[in-house]
Amino acid sequence: MLTLTRMDETALAHTMVETDSKPRSGDDPGKRRVSREIRETVGRVTVDDPRMVCRNVNVYYGDKQAIKNVSVDIGRNEVLAMIGPSGCGKSTFIRCLNRMNDTIDGCRVTGEIILDGTNIYDKSVDVVPLRAQVGMVFQKPNPFPKSIYENVAYGPRIHGLARNKAELDECVETSLRKAGLWEEVKDRLDHPGTGLSGGQQQRLCIARTIAVNPEVILMDEPCSALDPIATSVIEDLIDELRIQYSICIVTHSMQQAARVSQRTAYFHLGDLIEVGPTGRIFTNPSHQLTQDYITGRFG
Amino acid sequence: MNNTLSPPAASPPRRTIEIVNRSLKRRYRAERRFRFYGLLAIMLSVLFLALLFASIVGKGYSAFWQTSIRLAIFFDPEVIKKDTLVNADYAALVRESLFKRFPQVEERQDKRQLTSMLSSGSVYRLRDMVLQDPDLVGKTAEVWLPADDDMDMLIKGHFRRDLPESERRVSDKQIAWIERLEAEGRLERRFNTMFLTAGDSREPELAGIWGAVSGSFFTLVITLVLSFPIGVAAAVYLEEFAKKNRWTDLIEVNINNLAAVPSIVFGLLGLAVFLNFFGLPRSAPLVGGLVLTLMTLPTIIIASRSALTAVPPSIREAALGVGASKMQMVVHHVLPLALPGMLTGTIIGMARALGESAPLLMIGMVAFIVDIPKGFTDSATVLPVQIYLWADSPERAFVERTSAAIMVLLAFLVVMNAGAIILRKKFERRW
């Protein structure tokens, strides 16, 4: 209940900002939109109780700039959806949030991404605890070629989260339960994780991520390789996980964004075009590009 | 447009299916021809392999059998005194026994011919018997003694008896004696344990392969122990940790070039560095192993790197995503998946190292070494060098021993590779 109240307040704040301080959108934001040429972010990027704060983030691959001056907050217990046409930088951006881009040669990130008061790109920040705090689920289900149990137990084991076998067993069970996979696999925990179906594999990956008990979960198109039934199972799961975690999800499906998220961010060619409460983005976007995208004019 | 063109009598087919059907026969013919070429290539290689094996086995199998002569030896207490057990004149015992068996031989020349029918190694056989059981002294025993290699060749049919005596290595008299011994049942082809247990010798009937096998074993142990960890570590560093820049490019190019360097160059390097600079012992498996390590490293590094690149990046991301450090990612996830490929590269490298003789010539492993090496710093030779040495020897009996040594080398290779394949199967994940 507490969460809901907070979300309502946020939504309220948005409406106020939009009506009051949006000279660009003109007198009637519903009819006249920000023109396509303007690339500054429209909508309120901040939230009242942020978990992560991104300010002026730029990402370069060599000489090419993939993300241009993006500022956005990720609130507590909310699902932030990132949508946009292919190649718009939403995956690049989400990978900045736990520094997965570090592994790519020639990738350079400037700006600030603040978690618990420190910029995660500070020299002093260690990526190992950061990634334990900000977990990630990938586009393609990528379980380790080990048993189901080992897949889930791996994170807690390397971080030393379980003191003994019993605790580890319990952690594996809770994680699998939270991922809604326990009933399906409890009798075959020693079977290979790669032997599961696509949807089960993705839920196994989610279980693996939440076994470390992170605070933020990043999901990079988690359902793109799955059928509609498996997708709906995972969407329900995301909705449940929101109670405990902050979730940031990249998706190609606007319906999915509408179903699971509270706030939506629209990316276009490296620019963050518009951020706002999901309901408003899909019904009454302020920017012409957003309007074009959600009405299917491109993308 | 169609109307202006008058349709010819044999109008070209218009429907795709007709065009396809026309060319279908030709396509299938080409396919059959292609398959036939492939089959031909395989059959040719199998044929040559079979020819090779047939020739080696055909020439070499007889080396595992050695002609022996049974003699009644009287261990004369006059000759073997208590304090001279080791260096008593055992040859005299053999001579006595032979003269007793052939009392009609009296001339010095003939006596020498008679004694030369037995291998000079008979002496050691008798000495070992006495040392093992000193109670033999004073008794008579029937003993199988190895025949001289010329007699052995005669029995095995490698010498033609119909040549004039002057062109034979075996005289008419010796043939007559041999035939008599054979008739008396004192001549037998027995399993040649000497060949499998002894070191090298100038006498073919005393020459064995075990010295070279041990030398090869010690050398390859050094090679494996050094080149596998170093190669894998280098590959992991270059592939997983090093930043891609001009330096790593340079290193990569050099590794690829090193893999193509003629092996004798590594021998020269070993001679200059390990022997002349570090002063390590000459002819030692230790140095041989070091040289072969240098030679094998590029192969292992290249194979290991391609095995590492073949590990899907999603596995790396998964590991990093749950907060594994880079080292944990590599050790827990990437290495186990890449290990089968790395082992394949190691098998290839080690097989090449086993068959290598040129670099070892440069560091003195070509020396004539009788003793069986007991460790990494003893003088030794290796199987391919031993084969080369025997192939170079003039005695007819070394021909079959050369082939037999090749058989031993191949067996060594098969055992080594089988071990590696079993290991690889164990690590290979099929899920």
Quick tags:
A: 299 residues, alpha/beta, Rossmann fold, 10 strands, globular, B: 431 residues, MetI-like fold, 2 domains, extended
Question: How does this structure look, described?
Answer:
The complex is a heterodimer of chains A (299) and B (431). With 299 residues, chain A is of the alpha/beta class. Chain A has a domain at 2-7 and 38-141 and 215-294: P-loop containing nucleotide triphosphate hydrolases (Rossmann fold, 3-Layer(aba) Sandwich), CATH 3.40.50.300. Helix content of chain A is 37%, strand content 22%. Chain A has eleven helices and ten strands. Chain A has helices at residues 2-20, 90-96, 127-133, 148-159, 165-178, 182-185, 198-211, 228-241, 254-260, 278-283, 288-294; strands at 50-61, 64-75, 79-83, 107-115, 118-119, 134-137, 216-220, 246-250, 263-268, 271-277. In chain A, strand 4 (107-115) and strand 5 form a beta hairpin. In chain A, helix 4 packs parallel to helix 7 (198-211). Chain A starts with a helix and ends in a 5-residue tail after the last helix. The mean pLDDT of chain B is 89. In chain B, helix 8 (210-241) packs parallel to helix 11 (285-309). Chain B has 431 residues and is mainly alpha-helical. Chain B contains 16 helices and three strands. Chain B has two domains: 65-191, no CATH class; 210-427, MetI-like (MetI-like fold, Orthogonal Bundle), CATH 1.10.3720. Chain B is 62% helix and 5% strand. Chain B has helices spanning 16-60, 90-101, 108-115, 122-132, 149-155, 172-183, 193-197, 210-241, 246-258, 263-277, 285-309, 313-321, 326-354, 358-362, 383-391, 397-427; strands spanning 65-74, 140-146, 187-191. Chain B is extended and about 100 Å long. The two termini of chain B are 62 Å apart. A three-stranded antiparallel sheet of chain B has the order 2-1-3. The chains are: A alpha/beta (299), B mainly alpha (431). The A-B interface holds A 98, 100, 103, 105, 128-132, 135-138, 140, 142-145, 154-155, 158-159, 192, 194-195, 205, 208-209, 211-212 and B 243-244, 312, 314-325, 328, 332-333, 337, 429, 431.
